Amino acid sequence: MRYDGEYHETRELADGRVVRMRCIRPEDRALLARAFEHLSRESRYRRFLFDVPFLSPSMARYLTEVDGKDHVAIVALVDSLDLKEEEGVGVARFLRLAGGPHIAEAAVTVIDAYQGKGLGRILLEALTLAARERGITIFRSAVLVSNAPMRRILDEAGGVVHRDEGDTLVIDVPIGDPRPHWSDHPIFRVLRAAAETTRAALLGEADDQRADDASSAR
């Protein structure tokens, strides 16, 4: 299976619900923003490592206008209650590092209502296979030191501390074949319907938004 613009598959969750999966598209910006609203404040903080009250338009553009090679995102979708549109319930993303072509920062986010159903595992499997197609061999992630469950999962997956930043750890995990060690661990149950980007980029987006807000208030 190729994880490109033609990729799509349907998967059943542990509770019997069915999700559709495909690569993200530029027109998914509104969908992503709606999904972000279904994340609790704690979930947003644990993913972004700082408080992100809302998804800015510029961040939404960045997260949906991907190149499909160095920046890849896979979304999980369901029908809305009125069956008139799709709703995003999860997203997995990696961003290849410029200084290490075989390393990518990665994250998986599942909205609160769909946590604990196996969706994180399913998304991670797809993301891992997409990364392997593109020569990625290591996923890198920053995790709060206080996030003991996440640290335990990363340890079980063979994670190695790349850098200790005090309140956060930057951990490298060799991805290999996802099935032997990843599929049993719903890794990265860190919620963020806006999905990943580097922390530096996110901080930059937040600073830009604060500057825009301050300018508008003048």
Describe this structure in words.
The protein has seven helices and eight strands, in the order ββαααβββαβαββαα. With 218 residues, it is of the alpha+beta class. The protein has a single domain, classed as Gcn5-related N-acetyltransferase (GNAT) (Aminopeptidase, 3-Layer(aba) Sandwich). It has an eight-stranded mixed sheet with strand order 1-2-3-4-5-6-8-7, sandwiched between helices. A hairpin with a 5-residue loop joins β1 (8-12) and β2. The longest helix has 19 residues, at 199-217.
Order of helical and strand elements: EEHHHEEEHEHEEHH
- The domain tally reads 1
From the helix content, strand content and strand pairing, which structural class follows? Answer: alpha+beta
Q: Report the CATH architecture.
A: 3-Layer(aba) Sandwich
Total of helices = 7
What would the principal axes of the Cα set say about the shape? globular
Percent of residues in beta strands?
A: 25-35%
Strand order of the largest sheet: 1-2-3-4-5-6-8-7
CATH topology annotation: Aminopeptidase
Low-confidence stretches: 180-211, 213-217
Largest sheet: 8 strands, mixed
Mean pLDDT: 75
Q: Give me the CATH superfamily.
A: Gcn5-related N-acetyltransferase (GNAT)
* N-to-C CA distance: 53 Å
The number of E-state strands comes to 8
